[in-house]
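Q: What would this complex look like in 3D?
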Amino acid sequence: MSTDSSRLLELDQVTMRFGGVTALREVDLHVDEGEILGLIGPNGAGKTTVFNVVTGVFVPTSGMIRFQGRDLHTEPRAGLGLLEGVAPRLGPAKGLLTRRRSRNRITRLGIARTFQNIRLFSEMSALENVLVGTDNHHRTSVPGAVLRLPRHRAEEHSGRERALELLELVGIAHRAEETARNLPYGDQRRLEIARALATEPRLLLLDEPAAGFNPNEKRALSALIRKIRDTGYTILLIEHDMGLVMPLCDRVAVLDFGQKIADGLPSAVQSDEKVINAYLGVPA
Amino acid sequence: MRGLPRIEIVAPVAEAWNRLPRPARWLATLALVVFLFLLPTLTIPIIDTPGSDFASVLFFPVGIYVLIALGLNVVVGEAGLLDLGYVAFFAIGGYAMALLGTETGIPFLLILPLGIVASMVGGLILGTPTLRLRGDYLAIVTLGFGEIIRIIARNTDAIGGPRGINQIPHPPSVGGLKFGVIDPKPYYWLLLVVIIVVTLLVRNLQRSRVGRAWTAIREDEDAAELMGVPTFKYKLWAFAIGAGIGGSGGVLYASKVISITPDNFLFILSILFLSAVVLGGSGNMPGVILGAVVVAYLPERFRGFAEYRVLVFGAVLVAMMVFRPQGLLPSRRRAAELRQGDQSPDDAVGGEVATT
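A: Here is my prediction, written as structure tokens for the whole assembly.
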């Protein structure tokens, strides 16, 4: 199924149920390498739930998610990597060979996100927040840090450089030493993007990055998102503002009550009757 | 409590300190270290302890409390994990010294690392199943662990049962330093060296990805995990490192006191260690050291009031919680986190990211 090499992320009939509430119902969705996919829908449609299943916060009730062709939520147990190809054919026994992939390992696989309600490490400086992201690719652990081994020093140095670069990219390099909590709201949103980029994702998930922005700020953010894509990232974007989504996104998918009701070019989605009804309500 | 005026003396002092040129800071630190080494040989009227030997008090409880508090601070102050059974690691270190010292011919300098490793293993055994719990639940389980270790010691005849272990050997004498029964000074000096080494190593950790990971976990564990921090691994490390430091305290303690019994490791000690950390300012090493000195020294200084000291202690702690909940010398960061406490991340998430 996932032979198409340009498919970065693929949701296959994903259903997510919480007790009696079905947040996602048999959603099929894919993100191709290098595109900006907009995910829109009325409040409560399940957009953030999509982010949560894609980042491993929830495991879907049924259905499957593949990232770069591989099962996102399960991984072979340590030392059993060779059996990865065999595992799906083992039926019930495969539980012994695989385990749930933890959230931090999903991040290291190449998926990073920002949060709808900003969740920075508020007492750390902007730079330190980004450093937490760059640490993903560092191999120093406790012994190296205790003894200040050369690799630790090298990684601290390169991590710092990379973090400053990213702060520069999102436009807040001059605030690197400031405590995250003291940053203006817009800069906090930008810092979240820099922190996510620091993990070096293939796929960047942005959850309403323009919430609370004025039109000017929205335009600047739009330009930033495009720039990030052009540096080689793939972006999945949740956003309410159609004025931002339509010109920015290569493709738009629409969720309503946990179901995908449209998926296509922005212009096509915009004139889709189901979408218009979902947003404006069906006339009685 | 938010309405009370905040008297800030710490921040200006810290700032002045940071403004000093590097060599000046080095000199001041060196002078402090020299002073601490000379301390047991000096007789300073006010800080002397009537009724007990000052140098002895410096080793236990003061020095030992400082070392233990530094270890507990890694767990509580850095990683933000509440551990109410920390005395267990002190006990494991103590029993390691006692057993290996009496039953085998292993030299002291080898027993010290072995005791540390044994405590770290204890930390891993406690942490592996329990660090999936949070907050109150973790506190309760660790409290149980502290009691389990003591009760196992009391009920195991092979390690002396309730009578404990006697005839624990002293460290060998080095040159002019005689580790004997009469003079406590060499033990104090040895302890001081260990404290300094621990301080430097923990500071290295604070200034690395490990320290960042701990801060991130403390501030928002879910966000940390989603930013790729292996939270479980780093919490386990915090537990193991804290346990190892506690264990080193146990080894040093047992190497001086000749005999230990399970009653040396009562639950109240866990509480006193935790008080030292919280009182001083969790997350800030100078604060934690000060807290440990206060908790350990004041009761010795005012032995005349011995019967009331727990009472006084309680009153002081209550007053602290009212007037200075961040501790005597708080870390800038922890103080700010505490002020925000009411809107802790777990409450603020709404439905966005479930606490799993």
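A: To summarize the key features: The CA atoms of residues 55 and 246 of chain A lie 25 Å apart. The two ends of chain A are 42 Å apart (CA to CA).
Q: Very helpful, thank you.
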